Amino acid sequence: MKSTLEAMNTTIRGVAEESRLKGQIRSTLVRKSQNLIHLLGVLLAILGNLVMSISLNIQKYSHVQLAHQEHPRPYFKSALWWVGAALMAVGEMGNFAAYGFAPITLIAPLGCMSVTGSAIISVMFLKENLRASDLLGMTLAFAGTYLLVNFAPDRNQSISARTVQYYFVGWQFLIYVILEILIFCTLLYFHKRKGMKHMVILLTLVALLASLTVISVKAVSGMITFSVTEKMQLTYPIFYIMFIIMIASCVFQVKFLSQATKLYDTTMVVPVNHLFFTTSAITAGIIFYQEFHGAAFLTVFIYIFGCFLSFLGVFLVTRNREKEHLPQSYIDFGNIPGKQMLDKIQPDSNGLSYGTLPDGSDSTKSQSGEKKEV
After folding, report:
1. What's 345's DSSP letter?
2. CA distance 314 to 301
3. What are the boundaries of each domain within the chain?
């Protein structure tokens, strides 16, 4: 009897150990498949941003070519410009698909790859100068990207229509939307009624709309992915609600961003917009999809530090880039009788005058001095 009980206990322990091992193997396989899915999203985002960098430089090159023609055509009649536009669409599709495989907090900060990639391509193909700040900025951006990829939340959740509906009516998101609407309406009032067109106001409006954009893009892309892999989700009304929010927020976002680029220098708009957009997108991912739920403090700290490095890298790459490559106009004075030969005088970019003489003397003063001597 005793030996029978021992045998049964041994069997039970063996079965428990076997089930424990199977559970560990199952969890390991799930974690590996989850990491592969996230890696696919990261690769799609990086490739999409790099393709957009190529498209921007192609369009820039087409504008340069058209400007040097004797009778320049409209840019939309250039085949090269349309190639760039097509590549831009491909890059945006890559970013859109990436949100279906990885969290917002992982995909959104990877926008720095578009800025650094554009800088590298412009140096290689458009023969722009490579500055020390560019190298430092690229290094910081790549280091920040490495930290983001390794310490972003690894929470895997299938985005079904029911999941989106659950988050959509959650109290966290409702409070967030109410605050966002109040801030948006206040800024819009000062912008429209008071005529305030400060860059921070315009880009804050863009960032507030961007938070809705990334939430809806993640929902639409996730439901499409869920429909392909598991069960059809496109028959739910929430899919079309999110699709309308995605299109509307994108349209108004582009409107305010274009106003900012018209009023302010691109070297100022790009880093500030990247900072505001990424911060808004991360906040939306944390509140709506609860992507940092259960994350350790050290993981969150390193993730934030990675974001800081990428922001700093984008700032260094874009800083004074456009000003440095503006064509310098000079006026040749030639030989003036009775005067020392002057080579070229640099016009004053901040005023209507042609600047000063090379020795720093004022021409008016010199003329008055000559009259006194006479």
Report:
1. E
2. 20
3. 92-324
For residue 201 the two structure tokens come to 């106001």
CB atoms within 10 A of CB 73: 10
Along the chain (374 residues), what's the average pLDDT of each consecutive run of 10 residues?
63 63 56 72 88 82 76 76 84 87 88 84 77 89 90 78 91 92 93 86 92 93 89 92 93 87 81 91 91 86 93 87 46 45 45 44 45 42
How many C-beta atoms surround the C-beta of residue 118 within 10 A? 24
Contacts of 277 (CB under 8 A, 6+ apart): 108, 111, 206, 207, 210
CB 155 within 8 Å of CB 102 = no
DSSP string, 9-48: HHHHHHHHHHHHHHHHHHHHHHHHHHHHHHHHHHHHHHHH
Sign of the CA dihedral with 117 first, then 122, 127, and 133 last: negative
Report the C-alpha gap between 315 and 253 in whole angstroms.
22
User: Number of C-alpha atoms within 13 angstroms, CB side, residue 66?
Assistant: 16
To 5 degrees, how large is the angle CA 328–CA 123–CA 87? Answer: 110
Rounded to the nearest 10 degrees, the angle between the axes of helix 199-229 and helix 79-98 is 70
Q: What residue has token string 């990428």?
A: 310
The three-class DSSP label of residue 344 is strand
Q: Could you tell me the pTM of the whole model?
A: 0.73
Tokens 């070229």 found at: 344
- Beta partners for residue 345, in sequence order: 331
Of 59, 46, 182, 194, the residue nearest 117 (C-alpha): 46
In which residue are the tokens 């990675």 written? 306
Cβ atoms of 94 and 50 closer than 8 Å:
no
